[in-house]
Amino acid sequence: MKVRDTMTRDVAVARPDHTIADAARLMAEYDFGALPVGEGDRLIGMITDRDIALRAVAESKGPDTPVHLVMTPDVKYCFDDEDTAHVARNMGDQRVRRLPVVNRQKQLVGILSLGDVAVNQAQPAGKALAGISQPGGPHSQTDGLLT
């Protein structure tokens, strides 16, 4: 099964100059825990509710803090024509629950979540969850952000 057959197509995008309050409102409105951050048609980062909690609130940054100061700039993504099981394995290896999905022109076309995979292919989702559940990873509380 291809990622395009499994992904969520309805994607809200934050801009780097949005405030974290703007991003949080978008997350609440769409019931997302993560938003891609885009500049023009280019994907430049991801911001998660966890980024807001650990990189903003825990460090006493206010709601007017620009998204680009707390987002994760190292964007992992997948292509819409990739095999979902292969991408799920990568999600487990990278310890991420969501990946932006781009077409071959690198335009954002959706988001693939572990839940999307689980609904359509239980075995790859289980393997991804096992990898994601390992301690550490890019959004770990122990990644040195809080000292």
Terminal-residue CA separation: 44 Å
The number of distinct helices, counting runs of at least 4 residues, comes to 5
CATH superfamily: CBS-domain
Cα radius of gyration in angstroms: 15 Å
Basic shape: globular
Q: Outline the low-pLDDT stretches.
A: 139-147
Indicate the proportion of strand residues: 15-25%
Structural class: alpha+beta
Mean pLDDT: 85
Number of strand elements: 5
Looking at the structure, the CATH topology is CBS-domain
State the strand order across the main sheet: 3-4-5
Helix content: 25-40%
SSE sequence, one letter per element: HEEHEHEEHH
CATH class: Alpha Beta
Largest sheet, strands/sense/barrel: 3 strands, mixed
Number of domains: 1
Q: What's the architecture in CATH terms?
A: Roll
Structural notes for this entry:
The protein is globular and about 45 Å long. The model is unreliable at 139-147 (pLDDT under 50). It has one domain (3-132): CBS-domain (Roll), CATH 3.10.580. It is 33% helix and 18% strand. The chain has 5 helices and 5 strands. A hairpin with a 5-residue loop joins strand 4 and strand 5 (108-113). The chain has helices at 20-30, 49-56, 84-94, 114-120, 122-132, and strands spanning 34-39, 42-48, 78-79, 98-102, 108-113. It has 147 residues and is α+β, with helices and mostly antiparallel strands. Strands 3-4-5 form a 3-stranded mixed sheet. Strands 1-2 form a two-stranded antiparallel sheet. The longest helix is centred in the first third of the chain and has 11 residues, at 20-30. Helix 3 packs parallel to helix 5 (122-132) and helix 4 packs antiparallel against helix 5 (122-132).
